[in-house]
């Protein structure tokens, strides 16, 4: 970020700080919306949970095209300080969309037949006091039953965020002139991840024990992605097609793993009240996986000397 017009002075610390503030606000708002949506989706048929997960994937697809469009617009208008304006535009657009969810839920979603049943459950709760147990079993027992699938959701997102984008941001293209390679690989992830999230709606499924193995097997991506960033000249790490291939496999296992986990968790609930609790527990597993994975990714960057 630069300060001043006549003789601008670079201030990377201030720019980084403002970017962190914007990211924190967006992440905080997204976490609130996500937890609420998962809690509601758990009370509805599984198709709602699939739609919830797929919607997140679709949202990730629009980032790169919007970024490219902004670059074209800014270049045509000879706009200075393009990175700063891009950050501001992305923050404003995503903030408006996030806030728009509230009236959209009120005017559209709440009128759907599925949501009418959910709202009726909430209405019935108003007739009881806070001292009245809302679930048949203690919450601890519910969490215990849901824990295996919550751990799967946590593990899926945890592995993903250990290396993505912590290691992927250091990948280099075999073509030195391809300066946008990292963005291209990330977009590969977004596309294939969305496909993976949608596959359960096409009857792609597996037993829970198989899903646990599926999630645990993703640990192989941590050393693999790290080797690609540390040894870019070795074969086959050197080739762009190899990077896109492993990114596609990485993305498809991420999309299917987190979606199947989110679907199967509420199946252990007994009654609608427990289904809502299970939705919140699964959301916590998913979001805490993102947090823990990001922390371990940062630690890995520091230990490998990649963070300055």
Given helix and strand content, the structural type is mainly alpha
* Spatial sequence of strands, sheet with the most strands: 1-2
- Roughly how much helix do the residues carry, as a percent range? over 70%
| Proportion of strand residues | under 5%
Q: Give the C-alpha Rg.
A: 22 Å
* Overall structural domain count: 1
Number of helices: 11
Describe the structure.
- The protein has 308 residues and is mostly helical.
- The protein has one domain (14-304).
- The chain contains 11 helices and 2 strands, in the order ββααααααααααα.
- It has helices at residues 12-42, 46-61, 63-76, 82-107, 113-125, 139-163, 181-198, 208-216, 221-230, 240-264, 272-303; strands at residues 2-3, 9-10.
- The longest helix is centred in the last third of the chain and has 32 residues, at 272-303.
- It is globular, with a radius of gyration of 22 Å.
Please outline the helices and strands.
Blueprint: E1 2-3, E2 9-10, H1 12-42, H2 46-61, H3 63-76, H4 82-107, H5 113-125, H6 139-163, H7 181-198, H8 208-216, H9 221-230, H10 240-264, H11 272-303
Antiparallel strand pairs: 1-2
Write a brief caption for the model.
71% of the residues lie in helices and 1% in strands.
Keywords:
single chain; 308 residues; mainly alpha; globular; 11 helices; 2 strands; 1% strand
